[in-house]
Design goal:
Length: 224
């Protein structure tokens, strides 16, 4: 019987339905990624839910600065037999999609990073606010770096990105000419509170209508 492998991904949870055993999954990620760890942890749960299901995985870490090593590792994995490629890199790795098509292996890209939040903010600024530029403030350097791949590839705005806000970066913003038209904070509730508090104290947020707050968590209350 033809192997049936269907994975429905809606962030949480992942449901895996497979007819055929064993099934080997190739996971692509960047650096140390909590999302990839979560995906791997879900595999034993899927095995427990579906009788006769046997899953195994191999993970390849993709470096944007040196992709050749990742290409070699993917080729080695494909040569040993892979039934599915799960791309969990920050913005999707185009080479893996090409290799999956050439090998006839199903490919899915799962985006559980900041991309949906960044796209929502970028589209709002461009299509609704008619913005030409903006400052994007993230809660840490890792999230800022994740955002750069999407912004460079897709955004038409002039963007300045910051990992947090302090007196030094605030002074640079205040001295910019022309001044930025819009500011966006992309962070969880606690960090948005902290960053916006600094902005108010340093007299950056004098025009509230220029500020957009993008919350990356849910079920929390905002206090200003």
């Amino acid at each position: 019987m033809k192997r049936l492998l269907v994975i429905a991904c809606f962030i949480y949870p992942i449901i895996v339905v497979v007819e055929s055993t064993p099934v080997r999954i190739l996971i692509l990620t960047e650096e140390t990624d909590e999302a990839a760890e979560w995906f791997r942890d879900s595999l034993p749960l899927a095995e427990a839910d579906f009788r006769g299901l046997s899953l195994s995985e191999v993970t390849v870490s993709v470096s944007r600065d040196d992709q050749e090593e990742a290409v070699e590792q993917v080729c080695q994995a494909l040569s040993k037999g892979v039934h599915l490629i799960v791309d969990m890199t920050w913005t999707g790795w185009g080479k893996s999609r090409v290799m999956s098509e050439e090998a006839g292996v199903p490919y899915i890209s799962i985006d559980v990073h900041l991309t949906p939040f960044i796209k929502a903010a970028d589209d709002t600024l461009h299509y609704i606010r008619n913005a030409t530029d903006s400052v994007l403030i993230f809660e840490n350097k890792k999230q800022m770096e994740q955002s750069l791949y999407y912004l460079i590839k897709h955004s038409v705005l002039r963007i300045l990105v910051l990992d947090g806000l302090n007196k030094t970066s605030a002074a640079s913003l205040l001295s910019m000419r022309p001044s930025p038209n819009f500011y966006v904070i992309i962070a969880n509730t606690q960090n948005i509170n902290n960053i916006y508090k600094v902005a108010r104290e340093l007299k950056i947020s004098d025009k509230d209508d220029r500020w957009h707050l993008v919350f990356t968590d849910t079920g929390a209350t905002l206090y200003m």
